[in-house]
Design a protein that fits this description.
alpha/beta; 6-stranded parallel beta sheet; 14 helices
Length: 455
């Protein structure tokens, strides 16, 4: 596919990297020479310098032959204009990063009289096929983790019946044990293990070490029991401190409040703290203060909280405060980082989970560009692996064949097959039927080879 990425900030850079890694033809448009120079140094993509909203520049980028244009500048209105113009100039599909959720809804025009029809303006009328709200997706992910027994990531497939979960290896009963000697209480597939940020080869003789992250595919009802093999479960967080009253912090606080949680929001900007307090209910207390001040955190009772969530717009502040919260006694520390490469750093120095809106955006774009019946995708092990859910068509190469006969690349692991109400884990030598949902985990570089098997 030929894809244009408008905007070379953190989100745009990450999307361009992912698409180039998967073998797509990519052009990046950006008005900042400095940002574009960084793209040129690190990525094998075309670049176009200038104002992304001008028709002349879009034509220079050959928008007329674009299968997809992704507008991810830092300005909602710019992204919407880019998509509108790109569609008019011949782009097949458009996607816009829009922070303000009001833009992604339907607009109903006033009627001339009570009986006159009213026009409904839909997003596609504006030339936008897909709205991307990474801050909303990041807040949903943070809230989901806070309400589970283990403070680690989870990805859902097949309408949530199959999960891919990450667990940190912490219990002495499995540390130092070979994977083949551990009795797993429920059917599952170990799809990856990371150690000190690096993928290690998974086999029966693989020895688990303290601090490893193990990734399992299993039925959703079995995941909590499987997790208890590797880490100590915790009660869902009820008393939560949120640092930062921006969009993500506000959405997390609102979601937790709706679920009956007790929330304290710390916001450094006084006017913003007042605005957040006015918009949230009585179960949330908004504090005006400095989240980097250890004494302030202790005075406000932060050490007694079930969890601490840092959501400011400054990655370094979030990492610092996440570590500080753990240091003063908070059992769960979650943070937001805009730069995906900070995730492994933050988790290596003590933060439980780091979430990146850029990854959420890339995941949504990946669903659009994947072919072969792909309906869902997720990144795991940082950005090293991609999990994809495919629906098997009758004409697919994989149909009516055993998993072992299909010819998957060596690095690919098939985690599950879902057939109607039946979940098959591990898939073993099951014969793949048309209509099956197949969840495959692959390095990005081999995704095109996997896609071909489902075409």
């Amino acid at each position: 596919m030929y894809i244009i990425v408008a905007g070379a900030g953190v989100v745009g850079f990450h999307i361009a990297w992912m698409l180039a890694e998967e073998g797509h033809e990519v052009t990046v448009m950006e008005r900042s020479e400095e940002a574009l120079a960084s793209v040129r140094r690190q990525l094998d993509v075309k670049t176009v310098l200038g104002n992304v909203t001008t028709p002349k520049l879009l034509q220079e980028a050959e928008v007329h032959r674009a299968d997809l244009i992704v507008a991810v500048t830092n300005n909602d209105e710019t992204n919407m204009v880019v998509c509108f113009m790109a569609k008019e100039l011949g782009a097949i599909m458009t996607a816009a990063r829009v922070r303000n959720p009001d833009y992604s809804g339907y607009f109903i025009t006033p009627a001339g009289s009570p009986t006159a029809p009213r026009k409904v303006v839909r997003p596609k009328s504006l030339g936008i096929d897909l709205f991307i709200t990474p801050e909303v997706e990041a807040s949903d992910e943070l809230t989901d983790i806070l309400t589970r027994l283990y403070p680690t990531r989870s990805e859902k497939f097949a309408d949530g019946r199959v999960q891919l979960r990450e667990f940190r290896v912490e219990l002495d009963t499995v540390i130092g044990q070979q994977l083949g000697s551990i009795t797993l209480p429920k059917p599952c597939v170990v799809v990856a293990i990371t150690r000190a940020e690096e993928l290690i080869k998974v086999g029966k003789n693989t020895v688990l070490k303290q601090g490893d992250y193990i990734y399992l595919v299993a039925h959703r009802d079995d995941m909590d029991e499987l997790g208890g093999l590797f880490a100590q479960p915790q009660s869902p967080a009820k008393n939560v401190v949120v640092l930062g009253g921006g969009l993500v912090g506000f959405l997390v606080a609102k979601a937790l409040e709706t679920r009956g949680g007790s929330v304290r929001v710390i916001e450094r900007n006084e006017s913003r703290s007042q605005e957040v307090a006015a918009r949230l209910g009585g179960r949330t207390v908004v504090l005006h203060g400095d989240g980097t001040d250890r004494e302030f955190l202790i005075e406000q009772g932060v050490p007694s909280a079930d969890a601490f969530v840092a959501t400011t717009e400054n990655d370094e502040i979030n990492i610092l405060c996440g570590v500080l919260a753990k240091n003063i006694g908070v059992s769960r520390s979650l943070i937001l980082v805009n730069k995906p490469w900070y995730i492994s750093l933050a988790e290596a120095i003590g933060v439980d989970v780091a979430i990146s809106p850029a990854l959420a955006t890339a995941r949504k774009i990946a669903r659009v560009v994947l072919r072969g019946g792909a309906i869902s995708t997720a990144f795991i092990c940082g950005r090293q692996l991609q999990a994809v859910e495919f629906v098997v068509s009758p004409a697919a190469h994989i149909a009516q064949k055993k998993i072992s006969e299909v010819g998957f690349p060596e690095e690919v692991v098939v985690g599950a097959i879902v057939r109607g109400d039946e979940v098959i884990i591990p898939p073993g030598d099951s014969i793949v039927q048309p209509g099956d949902h197949v969840i495959a985990i692959s390095p990005l570089s081999t995704i095109p080879s996997v896609e071909k098997l489902f075409k």
